[in-house]
Every structure is written in structure tokens, then in C-alpha cells.
Amino acid sequence: MASNDPKTGGGFFASLASSITNFGSAMSKSVNGLMGYEGLEVINPEGGTEDAEEEAGRGRWKQEERDGYWKMMQKYIGSDVTSMVTLPVIIFEPMTMLQKMAELMEYSHLLDMADKTEDPYMRMVYASSWAISVYYAYQRTWKPFNPILGETYEMTNHNGINFIAEQVCHHPPMSAGHAENEHFAYDCTSKLKTKFLGNSIDVYPVGRTRVTLKRDGVVLDLVPPLTKVHNLIFGRTWVDSPGEMVMTNLTTGDKVVLYFQPCGWFGSGRYEVDGYVYNSAEEPKMLMTGKWNESLSYQPCDGEGEPLPGTELKEVWKVAEAPKNDKFQYTHFAHKINSFDTAPKKLLSSDSRLRPDRYALEMGDMSKSGFEKSSLEDRQRAEKRSREEKGQRFAPKWFDETEEVTPTPWGDLEVYQFNGKYSVHRATADNSEDTTDVKVTQFNPWQFQDLSA
């Protein structure tokens, strides 16, 4: 029987995984020889032979900005910098983390197919392909804005989905999201954790993602791999997500284990993902292979993980064509997320689209964006002091904190659940006082919801 680990088991991927492992990690170059940069590492995704100083001089930073930022950030090496450091807008994209959550819905039709199929293993193929599909968008090297406490993002007009996300905690930064259509319900609590390593950062997806398929009531649980962002300050920034993604059918015990190959010498293995669908007895039933930035395919397999005779690889997902030379490497769907085309007619006044710093950056005004970002952060701190003086505790509006604390590979997580109030609100939004007509939203100042009052 094939191992659950495609790196070590026999079968279709054994020799492939072994050869990639032998390549080792991408070429890593220390710039210890440069005064003031002791311990800083530059990693070239192409594995070229240029010297460290040449690679370190590449990237989006100007020389003086790069040196100044490195001196400021040295003291944070080894720390979680999720919200403790004020970052310049030069590294931001005009989108918030709440909108980034919504990008997972681009290929939500795969969840519709998972709900419709009678085949329990194809259900896992469709659902895990949906989970993989967002990584094409996640390879962008721009940082999204951290949401303000109480900030929201709504999305409609896409595959029959109603999506709502809310920033439910500021320290540590936590977001909760819910999406639903006739085929599935998606629920997520996210608490990102980071470790700053000098010229790179590890991002740990501390969170819980659950998908309920409505026809049979099947519940799927997703545990993604960590993400590594290389060459933050020196060199060309790039993203990798080495490790395992596990999706488990909590109802039947079936699961998918997909292994993201690490980038090796000369880019070998970069983007590649391989693995199997297993039944509850941990016997492989489907092999899956592809590249997370291109496409995924599947094929029925035997108990050793070898393709069944008379079958062939079939494509299950392919990335949609993206705009060429887009400044922020946006997909067409990312542009839709930022637009009012996906907004309800009456939009919550706390929606991410209405943030003046985000909008200024979208319009290309970095100076105004930086000013507005600082202003929002100052107002957030002032509101926190006001709540503390009054002995009040912030309470999210659309999600409730539960008593459940769930373990993850990177730490425990306090779970928030969708409280259903949004569904009632959306049904009566035309008469709601906390909404704004989308026809004029881009001209309105972004306002906080004082949810603690």
C-alpha cells in the first residue's frame, strides 16, 4: 500500500520526489562579506550563479530605502511581526486581508461539483483542487493592508455566493469569514502568525477552515502548508509554500494529502504539487499531480499508488488567463474583488473597498495612501483607549466567539462562528442605517463601526 506521504512512499511519485529532494533547496547565498549585513541571506529562485551582492541589489527597493529598512528591521529577527511593525505603503497592494480571504472563492464552482458528485473520491478531488487553486493568486509579492478592527468585506454576484468577512480581533490579528450558496457553506477563522528571519519571513496559517457540502451534509476540514516569502528587502521577492496540505472528510474519514515540492536548484520542483486521495482505511484511490500556478489533474490508482490500467490523467482545474503586465500581478478576479461589481446594492460602511488608504494606493497616490493609513491606525488606537477607559470590550457584529479552542500545527486557535445576523441584515439592507449606496461609495470617507457601543 502506498504511504500517506508522497515524498517517502512507493508508487507513481516516489522516484520523482526523490530526485527533487536530491536537488536540495534553492540556491542560498549569504552576504556575510558585506559590512552591516551579517547573517542576511539572499535566495535566488532560478538558482543562478551570480554573486550575492548582484542579486541583493535587485528588487523593488531603492538603495537608500533598502539599507534604512534593513537597519530598522534587524532588531525584529526571530519575532512575530504580524502587527508590531509599521510598514511603508511601497510594499502594499490595494487590497486588505479580508479581500484576500475572498480570493478563495474564484474557483468555487469546484465546490459545487464536489457537492453534486456521487463519487466520494471525486468529491475529494474537486474540493482539494479548489483549495489549491488560490495559490496562483497567493504568489503575489505585495502585502495586503491589515484590516482595522470591525472592518468588513462583502461579496455578492459571483456564483450565487454571499460572502462576508470581519476583523474580529486586533491583537493578535484575527479574521473570520463565511460564504454560502445553494451547494456549500464555507467557514474560516484565521490568525496569521509570522517569524521574521531577516531577508525572509515564514507565514504560519494558524486557522480553521471548514466546508459543508449541503446535499449530504459532508464536512471537510483543511490544513494548508506554511508560506515562505523570500528576499523581502534584498533581491527579487518570491513566494514558496513547501510542505503538506491535508483535507479531511470529517464525515467519512476519507482524506487528501498533497505535497508542495520545495523550490530546488535552478527552479527544479517549483510550483509542483503531488499526492493522493485516500479512503478511510488509508488506501490510495486517486493520484493527483500538477502545478499550483497552472493546473491539476487526477487519475484512479491501485493500492500501491500506481495508475490503473486503461485510465488516463484528466485535468480537473486550470488557472484562468490573467491580465498581462499588471502592476500588482492581479488576476481578473482580484480586480473584481476590488470593484463594486461584486458589492451588494447597499454596502456596509465598514467595507474594505471604502478605505481611503487602499483607494489612494489603487489610484497611484502613495503619499496620500501613507497619510490615510497612519490616520486610520491612529484612530484605531484612540478608539481602543476609549473602550478601555469605559471598561468596554469589542464585540464583532457578524461572528461570535465560541468556547472552542482548536489545535493547529502552529498553535491553538480561538474559533469564531457565523451568527446568522448577516443573512437577516442582507434581507433588510435597503432600509439599514449602517449601509451606503454603492453608487457614491468611492467618494465617501471610510468610517468605523462603533460595535462596542
From TrEMBL:
<keyword id="KW-0446">Lipid-binding</keyword>
<feature type="region of interest" description="Disordered">
    <location>
        <begin position="370"/>
        <end position="401"/>
    </location>
</feature>
<dbReference type="GO" id="GO:0032934">
    <property type="term" value="F:sterol binding"/>
</dbReference>
<keyword id="KW-0813">Transport</keyword>
<dbReference type="InterPro" id="IPR000648">
    <property type="entry name" value="Oxysterol-bd"/>
</dbReference>
<keyword id="KW-0445">Lipid transport</keyword>
<dbReference type="GO" id="GO:0005829">
    <property type="term" value="C:cytosol"/>
</dbReference>
<feature type="compositionally biased region" description="Basic and acidic residues">
    <location>
        <begin position="370"/>
        <end position="392"/>
    </location>
</feature>
<protein>
    <submittedName>
        <fullName>Oxysterol-binding protein</fullName>
    </submittedName>
</protein>
<dbReference type="Pfam" id="PF01237">
    <property type="entry name" value="Oxysterol_BP"/>
</dbReference>
<comment type="similarity">
    <text>Belongs to the OSBP family.</text>
</comment>
<dbReference type="InterPro" id="IPR018494">
    <property type="entry name" value="Oxysterol-bd_CS"/>
</dbReference>
<dbReference type="GO" id="GO:0006869">
    <property type="term" value="P:lipid transport"/>
</dbReference>
<dbReference type="GO" id="GO:0016020">
    <property type="term" value="C:membrane"/>
</dbReference>
